[in-house]
Design goal:
Blueprint lengths: L6 E5 L3 H12 L3 E5 L6 H5 L2 E3 L6 H10 L2 E4 L6 H8 L8 H7 L2 H10 L7 E4 L2 H6 L7 E5 L9 E4 L2 H10 L5 E5 L5 E9 L5 E3 L3 E6 L2 E7 L5 H18 L3 E10 L2 E8 L9 H4 L4 H10 L11 E8 L23 H4 L4 E5 L10 E9 L2 H15 L1
Parallel strand pairs: 1-2, 1-4, 2-3
Antiparallel strand pairs: 5-8, 6-7, 6-8, 9-10, 9-11, 9-13, 11-12, 12-15, 13-14, 15-17, 16-17
Bound molecules: adenosine-5'-diphosphate and magnesium ion.
Adenosine-5'-diphosphate (ADP) binds next to strand 14.
Length: 384
């Protein structure tokens, strides 16, 4: 077991890293963050912020010398970085688990190879792959295999011709072509798994997206108990087969009443933010515990919760989401939010708001799910 006042390492300085730093600090640990952005949200509150590239070996040597263990808050850490650090100190999740989650071809193949539910897809590496793709995949979504997020690097394609044009638009980078599924709704499961193989899952969350970006999470999901149980079981199988250690997020589609895995995130997940305010142990507490070899905490949710993301367009008067008609830049008026019973506001300390950028979120908690949802929607209307 790694115990306080040990120093932990975090690769990535975004908001997920920032919440990890807070959780680790509360538990008595120190945290060093590696992120090339000098203003990164996690770097601001870390004990030390190494402002360096992820492949800067001098910085990695410093991290390995100071930290008892290292984890990550984003899936695009180069595998070489994780492998290098793992020569010196424990790294969780492992390079191989992160490698599966950071490449959509590897991810879909992993699901297919393990008999886990997933939608129809084809790996696209060349024009020929599109010519030969099953006609049943259209209309579909072409997604770059690497570095896509918040709906970026994706194109809806009605036909083979459109898929070809989109593939060329992505400079013929490796892609997956997925069938466009009719979505009843989307759910996610966040869980933690320890090195000993112990698994604790949070109740599943129900997610709605706007323009490909998570907008609202309702937790627990309003899904049937049976569907929620199945989602948990599938997420646990994924974690076990990846030999996963840490906090893992699994996104699902519910299509015509059936569950299919959409994608996995080898880190805490945006749809698990409410666990800070509504669960006995948060997804970030679990990340610290799993990394340090502590027993995992109790994931029980003590309150109904609704989480609403606050995106950068809120910082512009009358801000249009597409960024074409941005009004004056100003801080939103937070006073309306603070008056809402059961609401907690979390702002990430990002220096500049851009449309679509995740700047913060709020969570409303309470005893009655319907009241909580009503208050959250009213709060959102009041500021947006
Ligand atoms: P990201 O990495 O940007 O989160 P996702 O693959 O999760 O990428 O896609 C973002 C959102 O786009 C999904 O949550 C879903 O709402 C929609 N979407 C993606 N793929 C499909 C699909 N095959 N069928 C229907 N909707 C999809
Ligand atoms: Mg997603």
């Amino acid at each position: 077991m790694i115990l306080p006042p040990a120093t932990l390492g975090m690769l990535g300085g975004g908001q997920l890293g920032r919440f990890f730093v807070s959780a680790a600090h509360e538990m008595g640990y120190k945290v060093w963050v590696l992120d090339p952005d000098p203003h990164s949200p996690a770097g601001q509150i870390a004990d030390r912020h190494l402002v360096a590239a992820y492949e800067d070996f001098a910085a990695l040597d410093q991290l390995a010398a100071e930290c008892a263990a290292v984890t990550t808050e984003f899936e695009n850490v180069p595998a070489g970085t994780l492998d290098y650090l793992a020569k010196f100190i424990p790294v969780h999740p492992s390079a191989s688990a992160v490698g599966v989650c950071q490449n959509r071809i590897a991810e879909k193949s992993f699901l297919a190879d393990n008999g886990l539910p997933h939608g129809p897809f084809a790996a696209i590496r060349s024009d020929e792959d599109i010519a030969e793709a099953n006609a049943g995949l259209f209309p579909g979504v072409l997604k770059v295999a690497r570095f896509g997020y918040d709906g970026k690097g994706q194109a809806r394609v009605a036909s083979r011709e459109e898929a070809l044009a989109a593939f060329h638009g992505f400079n013929r980078e490796a892609c997956v072509l997925e069938k466009l599924l009719p979505l009843d709704y989307e759910v996610s499961v966040v869980l933690a798994r320890s090195a000993a193989g112990e698994v604790r899952a949070f109740p599943s969350g129900e997610n709605s997206h706007r323009h490909g970006i998570l907008d609202v999470t309702i937790a627990p999901a309003r899904a049937s108990a049976c569907l929620a149980d199945t989602a948990q079981q599938v997420a646990e199988q994924i974690a076990a087969r990846l030999g996963y250690v840490g906090t893992l997020g699994v996104e699902f589609f519910v299509t015509r009443g059936e569950l299919v895995v959409n994608e996995m995130a080898p880190r805490p997940h945006n749809s698990g933010h409410h666990t800070i305010d509504a669960c006995v142990t948060s997804q970030y507490d679990q990340q610290v515990r799993a990394l340090c070899g502590l027993p995992l905490g109790e994931p029980r949710q003590h309150s109904a919760a609704v989480m609403v993301n606050l995106l950068g367009e809120l910082w512009y008067e009358g801000g249009a989401h597409d960024g074409t008609q941005l009004g004056k830049y100003r801080e939103p008026d937070w006073s309306a939010l603070h008056a809402v019973p059961g609401l907690r506001l979390h702002l990430y300390g990002k220096h500049h708001a851009r449309p679509g950028r995740k700047m913060g979120h709020f969570t409303v908690i309470g005893d009655d799910p319907a009241t909580v949802l009503e208050r959250a929607m009213a709060a959102r209307a009041a500021i947006g």
